[in-house]
Amino acid sequence: MFIFSEKDIRQVTDVNEKALELIEDGFKKLAREEVTMPPILRVDIPENNGEVDVKTAYVKGMDKFALKISSGFFNNPDKGLPSLSGMMLLFSTETGFTEAVLQDNGYLTDVRTAVAGALAAKYLAKPKMKTAGIIGTGTQARYQLRALHLVRSFEEVLVYGRKEERVHQYIKDMEDTLGVKVRAAESPEEVVRHSDTVVTTTPAKEPLIQKEWLHPGLHITAMGSDAEDKNEIHPSVLEEVDVLACDSVSQVFRLGEHHHAAEAGVLKESSNTLELGHLALGNEKGRENDEQVTFCDLTGTGVQDTAIAVYAYDKLREAEKGIRFPE
Amino acid sequence: MFIFSEKDIRQVTDVNEKALELIEDGFKKLAREEVTMPPILRVDIPENNGEVDVKTAYVKGMDKFALKISSGFFNNPDKGLPSLSGMMLLFSTETGFTEAVLQDNGYLTDVRTAVAGALAAKYLAKPKMKTAGIIGTGTQARYQLRALHLVRSFEEVLVYGRKEERVHQYIKDMEDTLGVKVRAAESPEEVVRHSDTVVTTTPAKEPLIQKEWLHPGLHITAMGSDAEDKNEIHPSVLEEVDVLACDSVSQVFRLGEHHHAAEAGVLKESSNTLELGHLALGNEKGRENDEQVTFCDLTGTGVQDTAIAVYAYDKLREAEKGIRFPE
Prior knowledge:
Chains A, B: This is Ornithine cyclodeaminase. Chains A, B: InterPro entries: NAD(P)-bd_dom_sf, ODC_Mu_crystall, ODC_N. Chains A, B: Pfam families: OCD_Mu_crystall (PF02423). The structure is a homodimer. Chain A has helices at 6-12, 17-31, 107-124, 139-151, 164-178, 188-194, 235-240, 249-255, 257-263, 276-281, 302-318; strands at residues 2-5, 35-36, 41-45, 50-59, 64-73, 84-92, 98-103, 131-135, 156-160, 181-184, 197-200, 219-222, 243-246, 274-275, 294-297, 323-324. By secondary structure, the first copy, chain A, is of the alpha/beta class.
């Protein structure tokens, strides 16, 4: 069994073309029903405002599969600690033996989540866009913008966040990283009204985005909601758009924006929501013209975890990183 | 984060009084509803005759909780490898951070499973017994007998196994370990008819034990079945006995002998099956006289895993074992 540190993992993996290709391949296999993906196991520790999620997926034909444990303990910042942590484990699909512990503290999740956003834009955003919009100023706000840049060029970025200093830092960081002009917006409304593609990256529990702000050509990717109580998008938006897409239909109706739209009665489970895997396979058409309004709901899937963890493992072994245990 | 090897874990933990006390305490907390125990997450890899189970339990008031990953890959023996492997992870219930990786390859599961058998006997076996019966000759056949010996004295042991050489090895090993006479039985029937307490430890998929063999004073613990398709005890046995007990009512009706009895229509989910935790708390009475026939169905619970993993961790830290990662 090998053990790899976050530092080593960061050195060999990033939001890039290769990760995009692998995650896309994972979604294709999901669409072809070549993936076994059990429901998420979740433990709540309400006394400490904490939750632990376990995700996994077995992809037929792969010699390893990942099991991911992610913790969110939201009193941690009061103690000067990060809220999120976690690791991925890799097991042999031939023997069941543990091959690796990837002590990534959520880094690989950040990468695979951002890359799913890039895939959504690849099939749903206008081919030529001018302005990218980001709601939120955290880690995913950064990774999602970098991932979007892999598949679309844009001239400027509009960002909205509630804390001014975090918005300033975001602008500085992203202008340095991408060399694109980034401006602060006064409101989510300003971002949506003036962007071609918007990515929402917040842990909001009340809708941030209203249907009145939609305009021809707009694409929205909502990646914030991954639990029943999270909600970034007003249900009426899902009713209004021309193309609805997601990572996994069964998951978004349980954990994503679709869940709230279904509860509000504007969407049925049998609705025509397309999965990224079917878009990638060409079984379904995404955006067909520059007038359509499109929407993609991301909750994060085990198949992304397996794809990124196996990739990281191979690169780490190649670079002779990590320690073998027991020696 | 600390990482501990199987070798180190074996040095500090065993089937003993202390483990019994801690597992009993865990069952009491389960009975008092002080435990959050989500359903087991399971991944099947049918191509390689493999399965991976994830169990966990959060026990209120404990500063850590365990997540256990167990693999069973039943083509492994053909490759000269053990079928079972696995590890336990320990997380802080205050921060969600990973505290330890216990690379025990199923050893702690063996211990906590055996100790649950001892608890069943503590409350359900006759106080004075002459003969202990064991069906099966594998690892649990050994640990269960040692665990039974913690709570009951017996003069002799009757063992049944299908392979003669494994029976001989079992007899030799257990006579050495316990200093008690061990004899081979010709059949499961002989074991049941001539023993006061019987423990079944097989992965059988067809019933081994029939109700015609029951006799006054008999206690049976069935620990083999922990999955829908496993079945050691004929459903009519569960209908016949005077006292029915188990580790977790919700689990045994899904994974244990109760599941088959319910399918056969001889048992209802509302049946009066007692949980070990309630027996330990004194809320319910186990055996009341030497004439009753008693039965306990064990499927293995996350609360046992958390109890044994935290115990092992504390002993390992005390003994300054393991390595810290990253250094």
